[in-house]
Amino acid sequence: MKAGKEPASPEQACQSGQSGQSGQSGQSGQAGQAGQAGQAIEVQDLHKAFGDLEVLKGIDFSVGRGEVVCVIGPSGSGKSTLLRCVNLLEEPTSGTVTVAGTEVTDPDVDIDRVRRRIGMVFQSFNLFPHLTALENLTIAQRRVLRRGKEEANRVARRNLRRVGLSEKEAAYPAQLSGGQQQRVAIARALSMDPELMLFDEPTSALDPELVGDVLAVMRSLAREGMTMLVVTHEMSFAREVADRVVFMDGGVIVEQGTPDRVVGDPQHERTRTFLARVLDPAAAEVGEVPDVGPHTKRVDR
Ligand SMILES: Nc1ncnc2c1ncn2[C@@H]1O[C@H](COP(=O)(O)OP(=O)(O)OP(=O)(O)O)[C@@H](O)[C@H]1O
Ligand SMILES: [Mg+2]
């Protein structure tokens, strides 16, 4: 994710991805429940071009309710663009995207209503620097969901507890580590009661020792049954937590399936080449990983 493509301000982050209405998602892996409830996200023949550059070249995939899907692939393969098309931060060139039964690519859709159901967490945290952790969690609740102060505080405290940061409610972002700031950003998204969460490399800007706490929070969300679409280079997280892994390259899905299948036994040469590079720290150290992204990616088995 390039910085310029993330929300310009925390306000925009709240408006674009952090607003939501109550929603219930099934337990991860409960196929019956997912079947009954339908898909959380359905993408059909999605194309996206920036001028002459075709970035998404016909993407078809879906995420069931309660499912955790990890998207992996080289830098520039279109992962962030795909995520951003799901909540219309990017407008698709053609194709359809349906979120919880509402076609977001329908020109008449009330996109703000749809976005309220989607929590989005970016690589950069987009917290308001002049507000405390607690205030960062209450502002969109109050402005967008029109919650009263007491209720907003109650929800905010519950979610700070969920991410292990009850002690930090009075801290300003500058007084928090990167990992703590990212956990506040996750708690902020959760405070809007999203039906599903999109994560775009939420740990790749963090120092390695701070990554674990953020992944632990995401792991516990997955256990609670949150529907999650996660762009990540954390292969151990993908293997352990994902119900499905999607490998993208050059704007197409090359293969998808269970983590054991895609990461453990990839069928395509492109997937094998990518995984060999990501999973081989020695290669990374000698600079042989030109295409895993502009940022320091955590290399993980
Ligand atoms: N707003 C934009 N205008 C022009 N080109 C863009 C824009 N956003 C993305 N691109 C281009 O689209 C391609 C896909 O970008 P995208 O950010 O989706 O890749 P990515 O798979 O998320 O990569 P990374 O792992 O580096 O985050 C890149 O070539 C990028 O330069
Ligand atoms: Mg990206």
Which helices and strands appear, and what pairs or packs with what?
Layout: H1 10-17, H2 31-37, E1 39-50, E2 53-64, E3 68-72, H3 79-86, E4 94-99, E5 102-103, H4 111-115, E6 118-121, H5 133-144, H6 149-162, H7 178-190, E7 196-200, H8 208-223, E8 227-231, H9 235-241, E9 244-249, E10 252-257, H10 259-262, H11 269-279, H12 281-285
Parallel strand pairs: 3-8, 3-9, 6-7, 7-8
Antiparallel strand pairs: 1-2, 1-4, 4-5, 9-10
Helix pairs in contact: 5-6, 5-7, 6-7, 7-8
The structure holds adenosine-5'-triphosphate (ATP) and magnesium ion.
Magnesium ion is lined by residues 1, 79-80, 200.
Structure description:
- This protein is an alpha/beta fold and 301 residues long.
- Helices cover 37% and strands 21% of the residues.
- It contains twelve helices and ten strands.
- The protein has a six-stranded mixed beta sheet with strand order 6-7-8-3-9-10, with helices on both faces.
- Helix 5 packs across helix 6 and helix 6 crosses helix 7.
- The chain is globular and about 55 Å long.
- The N terminus and C terminus are likely disordered.
- Bound molecules: adenosine-5'-triphosphate (ATP) and magnesium ion.
- Magnesium ion binds next to helix 3.
- The site of magnesium ion has 4 residues, from helix 3.
Total number of helices: 12
- Distance between the terminal alpha carbons, to the nearest Å? 22 Å
Strand order of the largest sheet: 6-7-8-3-9-10
**Overall spatial form:** globular
The largest sheet is: 6 strands, mixed
Rg measurement, Å: 18 Å
Structural class: alpha/beta
Q: What order do the SSEs take from the amino end to the carboxyl end, as H and E? A: HHEEEHEEHEHHHEHEHEEHHH
| Helix content class | 25-40%
Q: List segments where confidence is low: pLDDT < 50 over at least 5 consecutive residues.
A: 1-36, 287-301
The whole-number mean of residue pLDDT values reads 84
Strand content: 15-25%
Tell me the total number of β-strands: 10
Bound heterogens, unique: adenosine-5'-triphosphate, magnesium ion
